Amino acid sequence: xxxxxxRALFWSLDPDAxxxxxxxxxxxxxxxxxxWSWELDPLPRRGYGLRILRRLRRLRESDLLVLHKFxxxxxxxxxxxxxxxxxLFDFDDAIQLRQPRRPGDPPETGGLRRKRMxxxxxxADLVFAGNEELAGYARGVASRVEVVPTGVDLERYPExxxxxSGNTVVWIGRPENLAYLNAVHEALAAIxxxxxxxxxxxxxSEFPDWNDVPIERVPWSTEGEIEALRSAxxxxxxxxxxxxxxxxxxxxxxxxxxxxxxxxxxxxxxNREIVTTDCGFLCDDTEAWRRALQTLLESAGTRGAMGRSxxxxxxGHYAQRSIAAASAERIERFVAAAAGRx
Length: 342
Hints:
The protein is α/β, with parallel strands linked by helices. It has two domains: about 5-150 and about 320-340, Rossmann fold (3-Layer(aba) Sandwich); about 155-315, Rossmann fold, CATH 3.40.50.2000. The chain is built from 13 helices and twelve strands. The protein has a six-stranded parallel beta sheet, with helices on both faces. Strands 9-8-7-10-11-12 form a six-stranded parallel beta sheet, sandwiched between helices. Helix 7 (about 185-195) runs parallel beside helix 11 (about 285-300).
């Protein structure tokens, strides 16, 4: 490493997680473009204390430690805070809570999880929160908090419109979020009964077992997700309304918009900011969902217009490259100012 080159060290329990791939990997590349060097160091989930001891040298040599969405264990906070010159904590989920077992149930809000999270976030010099809900929590324990939305890589989504059937609704997500589809099961079943060609495309590693809604199963892959979205007609994001879901960052909506799809979503959290009337519908009950889906399925013109508006909105407000570049500039100013204060 050349003298004078700043160095960022990224600690993550899961570098393959969407939050790392779409938030911190672009940030690392943006820092590199500004002359930084960076290193990704995946941490084991166990071996508390020992995992930190094995990393002390790299920690001392780094100008910035970036913690990706995890809570340090008791006994780890002290040495990390003493040795790290500057700490950035980045998160896009309410990991101070435990995800409810069933949608709509209250999440667990206290105990050791919350204490570890409060202390980890509180010792950070700078916190990047994925939305205002998360920032509100972080401001209660940290001195400097900034909202940094998750961006979508529009360069992966060609602008030309592929051949579409006019009958495919798509949902993409992780298995633990499949339960949110139950809220729109009845509406989807009503659509399926009226439209024999209708199908619900699920892009995931697991799939619901419904006998009244035709389901097209698409195993998720980095290579396959783009075409699975682009060749659909409508993207959906149903949610329950609780403290856990209100802290979500709506990334699947950005994927739909980048793919040129109109969106139908629950009016929860940032969904209300992302989905405007020119690019989709916000629906809070079964009948509203049924009407919105029926309207879009019956009108290729409406689907096309909303899809184009959504793509434009994603490009203007949620472009990954722009967000990463702006975040890297913030970090550079912050580190330089902190160095100047001595």
